[in-house]
Amino acid sequence: MKVTNEQSSSVVMDRTTGVAAATTMATKMETVYERVHHLANGNAVVVFSVSGCCMGHVAKQLLVGLGVGPTVVELDREAAGMEIHALLYRLATGKEQQQPIPAIFIGGKFLGGIETLIACHINGTLVPLLKDAGALWL
Known about the structure:
This protein is α+β, with helices and mostly antiparallel strands and 138 residues long. It has helices spanning 23-42, 54-65, 81-94, 114-123, 126-133; strands at 2-4, 12-14, 20-21, 45-49, 71-74, 103-106, 109-112. A hairpin with a 2-residue loop joins β6 (103-106) and β7 (109-112). Residues 1-23 have low confidence and may be disordered.
């Protein structure tokens, strides 16, 4: 006998074995991954942030100051914001970063957070990355 949680269809519990199947949750994460992938590959620069975040503001201002019009996704205003945040956390921990937000994608590739963005700006590699991605026409 299988019991489905009525509040969330993400977990199905088999009473006889006590095993939970998270198939719907896995499908949802795949959909979130596809959305992030589509946004990152469909735009030269994407910034995932939270409205009111000071570091997100710094990242956006730096890019705008360089003449880039980034696509900005405010996670607190997105229906799947928590799931996107969880995915970005996994990406950031792969690059040994502490904080996944803001998360910056340039040319379809995950650059990193604010620390990486500023480091690239200081060491002179940001503008070439932006040119290669088609975000700048200098």
